[in-house]
Design brief:
Blueprint lengths: L1 E5 L3 H13 L4 E5 L12 H5 L5 H4 L4 H6 L2 E4 L4 E5 L4 E4 L4 E3 L2 E4 L17 H7 L1
Parallel strand pairs: 1-2, 1-7, 2-3
Antiparallel strand pairs: 4-5, 5-6
Bound molecules: flavin-adenine dinucleotide.
Flavin-adenine dinucleotide binds next to helix 1 and helix 2.
Length: 128
């Protein structure tokens, strides 16, 4: 069985970890467009403040993937999924076939169109 997971955040990583618990021999491949393996998003603030370096916030180093026989590809932005051919294609033109595909690509934040939501914090004080 070939499992392809797109996304190397907590969702994709937890899925990979649990698939491996149930399938000891299946081929698990994870693709992420980022250049760093799974890191703590919560600790990004410390990283940006210069209070932690990159290694400090990485949760699973490359050794973890090797130990669990999970192939992790960094800097691999998936731009197209061909459902008929059962393969994902990266922006660099690499093709990854799969039997099972998991999209764990996270979400995109946005400000909902609620009246007053465009008011900045500094203006908000003035409105009270
Ligand atoms: C600064 C900060 C602080 C936070 N604090 C908290 C907190 O205290 N408590 C809490 O519950 N949550 C917190 N969150 C939110 C939490 O981190 C997210 O809910 C969580 O990371 C979502 O995990 P995910 O795996 O679904 O997606 P993500 O972590 O967003 O991972 C998505 C993955 O998909 C990859 N990807 C996306 N598109 C593609 C593509 N086309 N090709 C290849 N790869 C792709 C990305 O590279 C990434 O690896 C915080 C987030 C941030 C940024």
């Amino acid at each position: 069985m070939k499992y392809l997971i797109i996304g190397n955040g907590v969702a994709g990583t937890t899925a990979a970890e649990n698939i491996r618990k149930h399938d000891h021999t299946g081929e698990i491949t994870m693709l992420t467009e980022e250049g760093t393996p799974f890191y703590s998003r919560i600790r990004l603030i410390e990283y940006l403040a210069g209070e932690a370096n990159e290694e400090d916030i990485v949760i699973h180093s490359k050794e973890w993937y090797e130990k669990n026989n999970i192939q992790l590809l960094l800097d691999a932005h998936v731009s197209f999924i061909d459902q008929d051919a059962e393969e994902a294609v990266t922006a660099a033109g690499e093709h990854f076939s799969y039997d099972r595909l998991l999209l764990a690509t996270g979400g995109t934040s946005f400000i909902p169109p609620i009246s007053g939501s465009s008011i900045r914090v500094t203006d908000h004080k003035r409105c009270r």
